[in-house]
Amino acid sequence: MNETNEVKTHKFKAEVTQVLDLVVNSLYSNKDIFLRELISNAADALDRLRFESISNPSLTPENYQAKIRLIPDPESSTLTIWDNGIGMDKSELAKELGTIAHSGSRELVEKLQQVKEANGDLQLIGRFGVGFYSSYLVAQRVEVVSRRAGSSKAYRWRSDGKETFTIEAAQRDDVGTSVILQLKEEHKDYLSEWRLRELTKRYSDFINHTIELQVERVSKDDKDKKEKSFEAVNQASALWTRPAKEITDEQYDEFYKHLTHDYEKPFARSHFAVEGKQMFTALLFIPKRPPFDLFMPDNQHGVRLYVRRVFIMDNCEELLPQWLRFVRGVIDSDDLPLNVSRELLQDSQIVRTIRKQVVRRVLDLLAKKAGDSPDEYLDFWRVFGPVIKEGLHYDPEQNEKISKLLRYESTADQGLTSLPDYVKRMPEGQNSIYYAIGTSRDIVANSPHLEGLKKKGYEVLLMTDAVDQWAVESLQKFEDKPLVNAMREDLKLEQSEEKAGDTSADKEPKDKQVKEKSEAEIQLKPLIERCKEVLSDHVSEVRVSQRLTDSPACLVIPKGGLPAHIERLLRATQRGIPETKRILELNPIHPLVKRLLDIQKSDSTSEKLKEWIELIYDQALLIEGSPIPDPQRFATRMTQLLQTAVEAQQ
Ligand code: ADP
């Protein structure tokens, strides 16, 4: 059999079958979106051909005019979406329309399947966009005839969207692609002229290519005859080139959906033109929800780059810093060359200037949203906050702007709070902003490290994102207030703060406290020495605590050390991270500590005391959310202690 009439059957990859099943059986009350998806694909194909023709002009014939055509045929009940774009060859048809390339998508599909099985909310799928497969919302069978630009061969892909598809040789005069939808009985209304006009207007008016609709009209020459012709149905001017005041919110939203496949409106947008030495237009969007791969290492991000209205590339990362990877949109530069390459982008002064402006505009936009609609902003922050915090580390020159966008939980229990609001609540005399870091709000809020601060009426910010540690260390200060980690060894409550902030009746002068501390240190020395000896493998130092009021002990982080949970996280992913020994602090006024001291004094080698010291250390680990080295031994000791306590009750 020669290639011309061989029909090859292929099986869809499992994840495609799952997507198709979701599309057909459970998805989208709004079936209309198939048209937006297919027109989007056609427009992308035209853009790609225009771009490839820059370096290879022979790809487009003379008098070539890029077009998308919608051809309804009531006789055969088919709707064809035709383009003369880049087209696909045989292997591209099999790959692009038979697999889902992105590994993250595969995971998402699995998740969706589970959601479906649990009868959950399938809106999630909108975040990933089913693209071509949305054809099956309205079609029982789909045929794709395509000819790759530069080739004379055309191929037909055909499938009923179940298990398999076929590919065979075909004929096509022009390069490009036709997607032919065999409409389901109940969806034949998509053949109507006014319906197609209305949908194209609504979804695709801003596409910068002409979309023509085939219509049937009574012939001018012969009133009894009907003639077919094409009529343009869109404005075919790129949305971002139109003046902002002429664009409606709905058009912006539709453009955003076209660009991102998101089913929801964006959270915010900014449309601006920069004139001067470098000229560019930008239309930027901030989504409401994160893409599924926001935290995956191979996350594709960036904006779509155009040069003088010619599409250059998708996901242009160079125009956005990594910490704004959720921003979507279009940037159209007047100054970059058309044959711009990735290398050129990487060290282009033009790109650096654009990027700076983009960062500034996005941060201003977010600040405005935070002011105008604080509740919506908090929803946004909960999702994208951890990404923006990365900016504190990577772009320290933006810290002033970023710091006003930050929101944290705090001991003031007012929900998420901003740094300016924290500062407003600071009692007179408090000079620092205190924070504590851990794995969950409750663990951090109840941590003994905060006891002293709470007693003084000082609010503490509670940080629980993995990035918080290095983000906040890059910030260091807000306005003129240093940010101080309440869990570090060098936590100091200054005298002025003590005086003004201390609301308790037993306010004491600083020198008296220092004296008391060194006295306590002298008194506690035998116990401290014993603890050092017993715990020498685990802690670097043992000393008297100033921060504890109710708990007997806690572990604090030495200078340069990392919080325990961050260190664990790092060690899980990287080899050779040494374990930092932390510092054990003892509360000298706690009855338990006092009693242990007595025991040490009366029997300096007491075995029981050794066990209790180990128990106190284990407890300190548990309180901060760390695993204890020997849970079995811990449990046995607790049982023994409980037994003694119970027996003492009898
Ligand atoms: P997406 O557009 O999000 O990549 P789709 O499922 O819509 O996903 O399409 C998959 C791929 O099929 C596209 O990336 C593109 O390579 C190819 N494709 C789809 N439609 C066309 C078309 N009209 N012309 C050329 N290629 C197309």
Question: How would you describe this protein?
Answer:
Strand 2 and strand 3 form a beta hairpin. This protein is α+β, with helices and mostly antiparallel strands and 650 residues long. The chain folds into four domains: 231 residues, Histidine kinase-like ATPase, C-terminal domain (Heat Shock Protein 90), CATH 3.30.565; 117 residues, 2-Layer Sandwich (Ribosomal Protein S5, domain 2); 95 residues, Rossmann fold (3-Layer(aba) Sandwich); 137 residues, Up-down Bundle (Four Helix Bundle (Hemerythrin (Met), subunit A)). It binds adenosine-5'-diphosphate. Adenosine-5'-diphosphate (ADP) binds next to helix 2.
Main structural class: alpha+beta
Q: How large is the count of helical segments?
A: 20
**Overall geometric form:** elongated
Provide the residue-averaged pLDDT.
87
The percentage helix is 25-40%
